[in-house]
Amino acid sequence: MSRSLDRIRAFAKNHSLPLRAAIGLLVLVASLAVFIASQRVPPVRAGVVDARLELAAGEVRLVEAGKASTVISGAPLPAGAELATGTGARALVRLSDGSSLFLRGDATVRLQPDGAEIVAGEVWLDAPPSERGGLKHKAGDATIAAADAGLSIRRVGAEVVVVVTRGLAVLTSPGGRVEVSAGEQAQASGNDKPKMSPVLFWDDWTGGMGDGRPLAGAGSGAGRIYGVSPGLPGEKAKVLEVSRQSVRAVIREGLAETEVDQTFGNPGGGVLEGWYWFSVPERAIVTSFAVETNGVLVEGEVTERKEAAARYATAVATGHSPALLEWVDGRTYRSRIYPIPASGARRVVLRYLEVLPSQGGKLEYLYPMRGEDPARIGEFSLEVDLGVAGSKMRIASLADAVVEDGGRRVTMRRSGYLPRADFQLEATPIEPQQRAALTVARFAAGADRADYVMARYVPDIDWAAVPAPPGDVAVVVDTSASGDEAVRQQKAAAAEAILRALSQKDRFVLIAIDSAPTVLWPKEGLAEATDKEIAAALARLAEHSSGGATDLGAFFDAALGRLHGTEQPAVVYIGDGLPTSGEVSGDRLAERLRRSLSTSRARLFTVAVGSQSNVGLLRELARQGGGQSFRIDRMETATSEVLRLASAIKTPTITELSIDLGAGLDEAMLTASGKVSRGEEVLLFARTHHALPAEATVKGRVGGKDFAKSYPITLAQGTSTSLVPRLWAAEKVRRLLGEVTDPEEQRGKIVEVGLEYGLMTPFTSILALESEAAYARQGIRRRSSPLRGVRLTALDARTERALMDAALNPAPAVAMGCSLRKEEAPSESVAAVPAPLVVDDKPMDGPNQTPPATVMATATPTEPEPAENALSPAKPAPGGGGGAFRGNAQREELDGQEIAGKRSMVTGSANEEQPAIDKAKGRAPEAPPPPPMATSTSQFEATKKLAEGTTPRVPPPPVTSPVTPCSDVARRPLADRIVMWSKRLRGELDGKTLVSRYQAARGACEIPDWRAEQALLDLLQRKARTEDAVTTLLAHFEPVPDTRAYVAQAILRRTVDPRIAASVRRTLFGEKIAWDQVDAELAAIDGVDAKLAKLRERMLVAPGDPQGELRVVRLLAEAGKKDDALAQGRRLRDRGFMSPDLALALGDVLAAQGFQDEALRTYSEIVEFDAQSPESRRLLGDVFLRNAWYGAAYRQYKTLTDLPTADAPSFLRLALAAAGSGRVDEALRLERQVASAEGTPGPRDPRLWARLWAAAHLARLLEGEGKPVEPGLAEGLSRKLKELSLFSGPSALAVLTWEDLDTTLGLVGKQGEGEATLAELSDAASIGISAVELPLGDEARLVFLARFRKASPGREVPVALHLIAWDGKAFRVTIRKAKLGVKDMEVSLPSFNPGL
User: Which ranges carry the VIT domain (predicted)?
Assistant: First the structure.
C-alpha cells in the first residue's frame, strides 16, 4: 500500500501542472452541473389562442396549415387560421380583447394576433371599451379601428363598406382617413378617398345587434362583493375593489377543480358587512368555501340552511367573524361576510368542480372572466396544473400565458388587470393517442354499501363523414295572456331570430300555444326557410293575438306530428314556462314529454323569456328532451342566446342513444336523454353491488343509420376516482329538483344528500367560522367522509403518488363489487379527505373584536318559515338580557348559558330587511302600520270630482327615509332580485306582512324603477289570498293611485272569489252603485235597448266601473249585437280589467257565435293568472263541461285532481268529462274509487253521489241508445248495477243528470194536476244529479219535470232522466232527454207511459 502511495506522489511531483489542470477542470464541470441543476427551467410562451368560436350554426369551416375541417361551438381558434361560413350559416367569434365578430353566411375572416382580416363577405364587430386602443382589423387595403362601438364591415373585392350604429370607428385606407360616427357609413375602394354618407336605412341582418345592444354574456369566474354599512340607512351598497385574485385549477383525468382566492378591500372609514356573489359554470358544483380571519383560513361546514343562518347571526351577535354561503339558483351563490373592517380587507376562497369535455384526446379548459361591467383587479394570477400529462401535450392559451415546468403548469400574471376576455387553454397530445371512447370509474364504498360507478362516453364517430343534417324545426311560441307587451315582443323577436338563423335548405313550422296549439304557418307539412316563407310566418304570428291559458303539454303532439319522419328534428319552445292548464306540475309534464318523444327522434329546446319565467322547469324539460335550455330576460341577451340555440339545432346529433353496463345497476342516471350532439359527452352515474360485465354496449342512430358498438370495460385508475360519489350525489340532487315544481317537496332528501356528500343545495349552506374552537362552541359537528373525495387543489406530489399507487393496486371490492365484510372500511388512501386548510395552526379561542351595535340584514338568502313573521317585534331575551334574534335567525344560547352583557342585537335575520334599532330601549320598534283605509265617503267624493272633470285632491305619498341600508340585492340583475323576493314571500302571509315586505324592499333600494316595482307587485298580489290581505295591500297604496290601480287590476284578473272581487271594486270605485238594485231594475224593464239606456244612465255615477261594463257586454250579447259585445269586452280587457267574470262573458258571446277555439282561449284566461287556485280550475272545467267540450274539461279536472287539495267532487267531475269523451269505463273506475273511499253516511256523502252517477252511466250503456246490447255485455253491466247496492228490492230509481254544474235543479213528479211527494236520495245538485227511489210501477203513473231551484242562468241547460227499474230478476232502462230554454224555469220530460 505504501509503495502505491509513493508512486502516486512521484507522478504528481513530475506532472504537477497537468494534474492540477485536470483536477480544476473536473471541479469546474461539477460546479457547472450543480449550477445548471439548481436553475429553474425558464418559462416558454404557450401557443397563442387568439380567439374562440363561441357559436357555430350551419357549416363553419376552419382552415389551418392548409387543412380544412368543420368546427363546432367552443373550439379555440389559433392565429393565422381562416374561418369561413357556408350559405345560410352563422358564426360568433370572441377575440382576445373581448370584442366579438359575428360572421354572416358566405363570409371568410383570417385571424391575426393584432386583429382580424375580413377576406370576403360581411361581419358584425362588437368592440368593447379598451385601455390599449383595441384591435385593428383589416379589409383589403383598409384598416378599421373601434372601441366601445358596434359596426358592420362588408367587403366585396376591393370595395369596403363600414356602417356604424353605436359609438365611433376609424377607417384608414390609401386614399385617406375618416371617423365614422353612429348613423353614418363610409365606403373605401382602392386609392380613392373614403366617401362618407348618412345611413338612411340599414337592413339589420344581425337580429338586433344594430339596435345598440352589445352582445351580452356575463362572466362567471370573477366574484363580486358588495359592502353594506349597517349603521347608515339609505346608503347604497358599495362595490368593493378586488385587491388580489389568485386562480388555481388542477386538472386530472378529465376533472378540473378550480380554486378562486380573492381579497377584497374596504377603502372607507366604516365597518361593512360584505355580500359576496359568485357564479360557476353550468353543471359545476361548489365543493368548499373558506374565509380568512386574522391570518387564519378555515374551511366552512355544510349545514342545514336555516340552522346555518341562525348560527351566523349568533356568531355576529357574540362578536365573532363568520361567513355564510347560500344557494341562489344552482349557478349563482351568495355569501354574507362580517365584518370587513374600515380600511381593511377580507379574503375568501371558493372551489368548484367540473367535468371537462374531451374530443380526440384534446383537453379544453375555460375560466370565464369577461363581463358586462368587469371589476379591476389589483394583482391577478392564474395557474393551471396539468400534472405529468401536461409534459406530453402541445399547449395553446392566451398571449399573456406562459408554460412552466416542461408543460406541467400554465401561468398568467397581470397587475391592474381589467379582464375583457375569458382565459382559455387547449392541450393536444404531442403524439396521437387512442383514447377510449368509453371509460368507467368505480369507487368502493366499503362495508355493505353499494359502490359508485361513473361512465364517460365520448362518441367515437367520424363526424366529418356525417352529412350535415337538415334543420327541420318546429318553433312554438307561447301566446297566452300572461306577460306584458315587452315580454311578448321578446318572444316574437326570439322567434324571428331563430327563423332567420336557418338556411334556405332548412324547413320549419310555426306554432302558437296557449289554451291549445294553433299551427300558424304553413297549413300543411313544413315550409322552406326562405325569406318569403319566414315573412309570411311572422305576419301570421303578428296577427295572432295573445290570450288564453298556457297548456304546455298540448304542443308536443302538434309539433311532433309535423316533424314526423324527419331525421334530426328539433322542437323549440319560446315562453315563460308557466303552465296553467293541463299538466301544470313538472313531473307530469316530464312524463308526458317522455311519452311523446318515445317514438320520435326530435330534441326539445327551450327558451325562457321574461324575468319571471320558470327557468328550472324549462331546463329540466330540455334535459329530458335531449336538447338544451336558453334564457332571455332582456332584449340585450336575445341575439347571443338565439345564436347558441341555432348552433345546437344544426349540430350533428346521435339519437336513440343507449348505454348498457349490465343489469346490476341501481339508481342509474344518464345526463343525456337518448340524444347527444357532436362535441358533447354523456355521463352515466349509478350504484351497484355487483361486478360489471367485461364489455359495455352503446347503440344509437346518426346520419340516418343505426349503429351498435361494444367497448371493453377497464376501470380507470387515478385520483379522480374518489370524486365519483360526489359527482353522483350532485346529479341526484339535480334530478330531485327537476322532478317537482316546488323543491320543498323534496327538502328532506336533498338535505340528507347535501350533508352526507358536502354539497351546496337549496336547503344546505356553508357556514365558515374563524376557528375550530368556534365550531365547537356553536355545537357544529365537523363532518368528513371518504364519499366527499380528495381536494385536487390541495394535492402535493407525494400525496398524489400515494393515491395513484393505491388506485393501481385496488382492493378486490373495487373491481368485484361490495366487500363481504361489514367491518371493512374504504381505503383512506383512496378517498382521503384533506383537513381544513389553515395558515396558522393556533385556532382562535375568542372573538376577534367587539361586535357592532347592529348588523342590518339587508336581504334574504333563505326563505322564511310560513308560520313566522320576520318583521314582528323581537321578543326580549329571558332573564332580562338585552339581546334578541328575529325571523329565522332566532336567539341561540351557547352551551346553555346566557351571555349577558356580551350579546348584542341583531336586527333582521338572514331573511328580511329590518327596522332600525331603538338603541335606548334595546329592542326593535314595530314596523309602521299601513295608512288607514279610506272611507267610502272620501272615495265617493274623489270619484265624483273625477266624473265632473276635476282632479280630486289626493294626498301625496308619504316621504319616508329608508330604515335599512341599501342591500346587495339592489345591485343584482332583476332576475336575481325576483328570486330573492320570492323566497321572502313563501308561505301564507297576511296583509301587514305583505306591506312590510314591500317597504323593506323599497327601503333597501331594490325597486329603483317601475320594471322592478312591477315584478315585486306581481309577486305581492299573488300572495293576497284573503279579503283582509287585499284590503290592507290596496289601502297601503292609496297615496299612489297608479300603483294601487295596477295591483287592483292584477287581483281582479285572477280571483274568482266574489268577496275579494267586491273588496277590490269597493276600494277602486267605492259603493256608489248598488248593483243588486240595478239588476232588479233592469229585470223589470222590457226590451234590451231600454235596459242598455237605463244601465248607461246609472253608470254615469261611477264611470269606468267594470261591473257596469260587464253588464253592458251581456246585454249587447242578449240583443244579438255580438260584434259590439266583443268590442266592448276587448276594450275593457285592454284597460287592464280582465277578470274571470269578463272572461266568462266574452267566452259566452264567442261560444254562442260558434267560435269554439276563440271561446276556449278566452275562457281559459280564468286560470292564466292564478294557476294554483282550485276554485279557478274548477270553474273553468265546469264551463268547458257545460259546453260539452269534454276533452278540454278533462284536462282541467285532471289538473284539479293533481292538486294536494283535491276532493271527491273533483274526481267525480273528472269522471263526467271522461264519460263525455266516450271513456265511460274510466269514468266508472273513478266513481268506484270515490265510492270505496272513507266518508260519512248522509245525503251529502260523495260516496253516494258516485254510486248514483255510476248508475246513470251504466244505464246509458244498458240502454244502448236504442240499439240491442250484446248479451254478455248486458249481463256484466247488470252485475255492476247490482254491486252499487242502490236497490234493496224491486223498485225504480229515477236519476236526473245535467252537466251545467253552475245551476241547481231538482226532479219533480206530477200526478194529474198535483205534485207527488218524492224523497230525494241525496243532496247532490252541486255535482249535477238529483235522484229519487219509487215503488215499482209508480214511474209509469208520474210525469217528471226538471225544475230550477234557483234563478235561471240565462242559457239553455240540457238534462237527462234515467229510469232504472228492477223487478228482482232483471233491469229495465229508459232514458229521456230535454232542454230548459233561456227563460224556462222548468221543463217536462217525455212520459214513460205513452198513455199519459
Answer: 226-354
**Whole-number Å distance between alpha carbons of 336 and 349:** 13
Flag whether pLDDT at 431 surpasses 60.
yes
Distance CA 628, CA 606 (A): 7
d(CA 77, CA 66): 15
SS3 state of residue 1310: strand
Return the DSSP state at 957. Answer: P
Q: Are strands 377-385 and 241-252 parallel, antiparallel or unpaired?
A: parallel
The grid coordinates listed for 97 are 380583447
Please, what sign has the CA dihedral across residues 76, 80, 81, 84? positive
Backbone angles phi, psi at 314, to 5 degrees: -60, -45
Q: Residue written as cell 382559455?
A: 424
b/e burial code for range 245-280 (CB count within 10 A of at least 16 → b): bbbbbbbbbbbbbbbbbbbbbbeeebbbbbbbbbbb
Region 268-281 average pLDDT: 84
Q: Are 850 and 319 in contact (CB under 8 A)?
A: yes
Q: Is 798 exposed, middle or buried (0-12, 13-18, 19+ CB in 10 A)?
A: exposed
SS3 248: strand
pLDDT tens per residue, range 1018-1032: 899 888 888 888 889
**Largest interatomic CA distance in the chain:** 160
pLDDT band at residue 549, thresholds of 50, 70 and 90?
A: confident
The dihedral region occupied by 577, where left means phi > 0, alpha psi between -120 and 50, and beta the remainder, is left
- 828 contacts: CB under 8 Å, gap ≥ 6: 786
Q: Within 956-1026, where are the H helices?
A: 974-984, 991-1003, 1010-1023
Q: Could you tell me the strand order of the sheet in which 682-688 lies? A: 438-443, 451-457, 682-688, 665-670
**What is the residue-wise DSSP string for 93-127?**
EEETTS-EEEEPTT-EEEEETTEEEEEEEEEEEEE
- Side chain identity at 738, as an amino acid letter? G
Q: Beta partners for 1334?
A: 1292
> Which letter does DSSP use for residue 923 in this model?
B
Q: Which amino acid is at 930?
A: P
Give every CB contact of residue 348 below 8 A, 6+ residues apart in sequence: 223, 225, 261, 262, 264, 276, 289, 290, 291, 292, 323, 335, 337
Report d(CA 689, CA 1224) in Å as an integer.
Answer: 47
Classify 494 as helix, strand or coil. Answer: helix
Q: What would the DSSP string read from start to end of 167-222?
A: SEEEEEETTEEEEEETTEEEEEETTSPPEEEE-S----TTSSGGGT-PPP---SSS
985: left (phi over 0), alpha (psi -120 to 50) or beta: alpha
pLDDT of 410 over the 60 cut: yes
Distance (Å, whole) CA 487 – CA 974: 14
Beta pairing, strands 393-397 & 47-57: parallel
Per-range mean pLDDT, top range of 62-66, 417-421, 501-505, 630-634: 62-66
pLDDT at 9 over 70: no
List pLDDT tens digits, range 1267-1285. Answer: 788 888 888 888 888 888 8
Question: How confident is residue 519, by pLDDT bands cut at 50, 70 and 90?
Answer: very high
CB 995 within 8 A of CB 1033: yes
Q: Which three cell numbers stand for residue 340?
A: 370587513
Asked, as a colleague might, if the bond just before 864 is cis with ω within 30 of 0, I would say no
8 Å CB contact between 701 and 601 = yes
Q: Is the pLDDT of residue 897 over 70?
A: no
Mean pLDDT of all residues belonging to the chain = 78
In angstroms, the CA 1137 to CA 1110 distance is 10
Q: Give, as one character, the DSSP assignment of residue 726.
A: H
- List helix spans (H) across 1264-1362: 1271-1283
What are the cell numbers at 973? 340583475
The closest alpha carbon to 1015, from 995, 1035, 996, 1001, belongs to: 1001
DSSP state of 1321: S
